[in-house]
Amino acid sequence: MSAATITEPQGLDVPPEGEGGFTQSWFPVCYSADLQPGQVIGREFLDGRIVVMRDEAGVASVLSAYCAHLGVDLRHGSVCEGRLRCPFHHWEDAADGRCVKTGIGDPPPPRTKLFRFPTAEKYGVIFAFNGEQATWQLPDLHIGVDEAVAYPAPLARIHCDPWKMMANTPDWQHFMLLHGFDFDVAHAKASMEWNDNGFRYTMRTRVDGMEFSFTPTLTGTSVFFVHGRMGERRFALVAPFGLPKPGECDIYTSVVLPKDDPNPPEILGILQQRFGRMVQEDYPLIDDAHFRARNLTKSDAEVARWIRFVRDYPRAHPARDYLR
User: Fold this and answer.
1) What string of DSSP letters covers 25-55?
2) Residue/partner pairs of 311-315 with CB below 8 Å, 24 or more apart
3) Rounded CA separation 158/286 (Å)
4) Alpha carbons 97 and 277: distance in angstroms, whole number
């Protein structure tokens, strides 16, 4: 094996999502704007079905979709005093998944419940954590997120597991060769920071003669965002990746700007043009790729580290018996 080659003897394989469970990450399930108070919507998730409900006070919850009585898909249900009501026999489930009432008045059978996913709402997106309890929290965007506005793009779907889309971020070769980025690689390497849930680094380049500095961040196996500056103006680009089923990835993309940005259409246009071009170049290649890490070289060091990170990331599927 060449000294410049960094692969292990059998290559760097990652089991597909669904094999041995699903990675324990926060996955987006809908945009915040998709769900009004008192509304219920259905979604695919982890090779099954869920519902996302928002109670009258505006609090979102993510639950398994099938009524514990006779299995009606609760996307047809309604919100009643903060509870999810099945339209068939009017069984009612609390936001924590417990069945608390039947329409006919019989006591609910003991331990009758839906699976309740830990739920978070951030960056204009509603997330569900794959687990009974969340083991980490979604990070802030560092642009004054409490005073920010999200501008979501249409949902897109691509044929790959979410972590493969995330593998683009440490792939500096493709930024230069595919996208034509001229950036300070030495600075990016020096700024690389890994932690238990992912990494971040800082990229410096110029766009239309303007200094462009941004920090790509990967958290878990599904949450990607960039926060940075164009001149003196702050911005974030958020692109968390949903997991409806193995080998499928839903892409929720939003530009997030401070409320006090002086000209949102201008910076939106610049970011959408720059990152939109990258998306158009990336997606067709990733959509039908057979992603295998067999012959990596020294320039792939951070890609290899990311693949090892995903390979060793915790997996589980506690909702398995509820979702299908």
Assistant:
1) -EEEEEEGGG--TT-EEEEEETTEEEEEEE-
2) 311/12, 311/13, 311/14, 311/15, 313/23, 313/24, 313/25, 313/220, 313/221, 314/23, 314/24, 314/135, 315/20, 315/21, 315/22, 315/23, 315/24
3) 8
4) 43
User: Which burial class, exposed, middle or buried, applies to 56 when counting CB atoms under 10 A from its CB (0-12, 13-18, 19+)?
Assistant: exposed
Of 108, 104, 105, nearest in space to 94 by CA = 108
Name every residue whose Cβ is closer than 8 Å to that of residue 15 and which is 6 or more positions away in sequence.
Answer: 311
CA distance 237 to 216: 9
Cβ atoms < 10 Å from Cβ of 296 = 18
Tally Cβ neighbours within 10 Å of residue 223.
Answer: 26
**CA separation for the pair 267, 68 (Å, rounded):** 48
Element (H, E) at 210: strand 210-219
Q: List CB contacts of 146: < 8 A, sequence separation 6 or more.
A: none
Mapped onto helix, strand or coil, the DSSP state of residue 265 is helix
pLDDT in tens, the chain (324 residues): 344 455 454 467 899 999 999 999 999 999 999 999 999 999 999 999 999 999 999 999 999 999 999 999 999 999 999 999 999 999 999 999 999 999 999 999 988 999 999 999 999 999 999 999 999 999 888 766 557 888 999 999 999 999 999 999 999 999 889 988 877 888 889 999 999 999 999 987 766 666 778 899 999 999 999 988 877 888 899 999 999 999 999 999 999 998 888 899 998 888 888 788 888 899 999 998 888 888 889 999 999 999 999 999 999 999 999 999
Sole residue written with tokens 């971020």? 169
Of residues 103, 105, 83, the one with CA closest to residue 95: 83
